[in-house]
Amino acid sequence: MAKDNKNEKKKQSTDSMIDEAIAKQNAWLENRRTYTRGFLKKLDTFARKKDENQSIDKKEIERARNRRSVIGAYWFPILCALVVIFIAIWVAFVRQPAPQRVVVVPAVPEPVVQAIDTMTAPTFDIVRIEKNGSVVIAGRWLPHQNISIVVNGKIVATERTDSAGEFVYAPSKPFAAGNYTISLMGTEPTVKSEDKVFVYVSEAGAENSVSLLMTRDGSTLLQAPSMLRDGDLSVSKIDYLDTGRIVVTGDALPRLRVSLSLNDKYMGFARVSDHHHFGLGADVGELESGKEYSLTVRMHDGDGRTVASVTHDFVMPEMTGDDDTFYTVRRGDCLWIIARNFLRRGILFSIIAERNNIENPDLIYPKQLLQIPVEK
């Protein structure tokens, strides 16, 4: 009995606890409902006030929008105008004028263009004939220029001068025996050498060859023959005219000089032609018939030294008459030289041309026999 009372009391306490929990929960929910209703009322009131405010300020909003649209459309010109106004105020009132500075610019010299001196002509230094017949040519002109070597009127090679203006030309092929005239020519611009070099390459070799520099003032021997052979100097004919003039013809090395002496008295000189022939005349006065005379012909180098001589001792024969003087033309001869030798003056060549019926005085032929009109 007592045990049932204890269970009943215990059961009542549990129910009461559940009822209390439910009562508390209901009270909390009621509080939440009350709070929510109050919050919604306040929110509704705020929303209504906002709508009223929006309706009141609608005109002001439209006016603000209009102002913003105008500013948005014209903001850039307005900004530019403000910048210009600011610059003008700064220049007029704020900016101080900078002091003027005088800048002295040093004078710059104009570039100097080195012009080629057209007045400077190429010149020779050496022209040497080697043992094998080859020719070595050396000279000078302007630095770093092309210079052509001209042999007998034809360009055979073009060399380049170095920084000192010097050049050397040495052909691999030797020159054949014969006569050569060598000159120089600058290519840019075309400037020819004033001097020329005459070269005689002998069949006997370099020892018998000649290299002669020819200038306005005369000639200079660059290479003289170191050894001569028989026939390099020979006298082929001696004519004595009743005018007291003696004419000697012969052969020698080309372009060298030969002189005439009678009984060791110097009588004059002449130049040997490119064809090895020479002829010289001199007034020796009246020679006595039957008297012995000694005539010497000497060949000289460019320095005047005697390199060969031929002496003829003869007895003066009797004269046979004025019309018995004849001369056989040889290669390289001209009437002017013949007239100078026989008639003392080359300008008298027309007398020889008239006596021999020569229409063109510039045209005579080798082995042509000319009659020399000699008168006292």
Structural class based on helices, strands and sheet pairing:
alpha+beta
Task: Give me the CATH architecture of the domain at 234-371, please.
Answer: Sandwich
- Count helical runs: 5
- Rg over C-alpha atoms, rounded to the nearest angstrom: 64 Å
**Percent of residues in beta strands:** 25-35%
Per CATH, the class of the domain at 234-371 reads Mainly Beta
Shape: rod-shaped
How many E strands? Answer: 19
Point out poorly predicted stretches: 111-116
Helix content: 25-40%
Report how far apart the termini are.
Answer: 214 Å
Secondary-structure element order, N to C: HHHEEEEEEEEEEEEEEEEEEHHE
Main β-sheet: number of strands, strand sense, barrel status? 7 strands, antiparallel
Structure overview:
This protein is of the alpha+beta class and 376 residues long. Among the domains are: 123-223, Sandwich (Immunoglobulin-like); 234-371, Sandwich (Immunoglobulin-like), CATH 2.60.40.2550. The chain is built from five helices and 19 strands. The longest helix is centred in the first third of the chain and has 55 residues, at 2-56. Mean pLDDT is 77; it is low at 111-116.
Topology diagram in text:
Elements: H1 2-56, H2 58-73, H3 75-94, E1 123-129, E2 135-140, E3 146-151, E4 154-160, E5 166-169, E6 178-186, E7 191-192, E8 196-201, E9 210-215, E10 218-223, E11 234-240, E12 245-251, E13 257-262, E14 265-271, E15 277-283, E16 292-300, E17 306-315, E18 326-328, H4 335-343, H5 349-355, E19 369-371
Antiparallel strand pairs: 1-2, 2-5, 3-4, 3-6, 6-7, 6-8, 8-9, 9-10, 11-12, 12-15, 13-14, 13-16, 16-17, 18-19
Helix pairs in contact: 4-5
